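Figure 2 data, in text form.
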Amino acid sequence: MGSDEYIVYCWHCGAAFDAFEVPFCTHMDATKICPFCLKCSCDAPEQYKKEFTQNCPKKLLEEKISQQEGKELKLGEILIKAGKISEEQLNIAIEKQKIENRPLGEIFIMMGLITYAELKMILVDQRELAFINLDKFEINFKLVEKVGKKFCLHYKFIPLEYVKMNNQKILRFAIGDKADLYRLKLVKGLKDIVLVAYMADKQKIDLLLEEIRDQDLLVLK
């Protein structure tokens, strides 16, 4: 085995592959993606993930740590955009992290800036959202009225579809920034609604929002 080769067997399909040749997934605690079944190891047994970490070359661990640090900084950016923390508080948290040697999210909790539930929500939303092209999209103004025009404007999202299925309410919508998705999920009145978010071009979202006018509250029935 060469210095830049680490052969592993996929926990899901059993295929052998070189971990150096495939990317990490985009989940917060990233794992390698199998090139055959295209599944990462995030749902693998804990023993499988433990053995991978214990046996893998240092270079792979450094790659994972580098990716993790980038995501933690992105976490700080999301919290700033959502109005939960300031840039000064982020800088303080980063300095505390150097001393405490803990994930940045835990530092935010220790500082009383966010709750564990809020952190968990953000980490889940770090996954990649499907992109939707809204170039030929026409606003459904009846749906906008149902959701609430001011509500759409405040949370900067475009409602695409609202359906009831198997006693569940499902709202599909497009956003231009993940921070807006985080703010939206903090709304208590939406806890009984399944939110299905899509990422769209931010400039297009802004243009569509210009077409939407005042109305106060969310009234999904």
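Caption note: The two ends are 62 Å apart (CA to CA).
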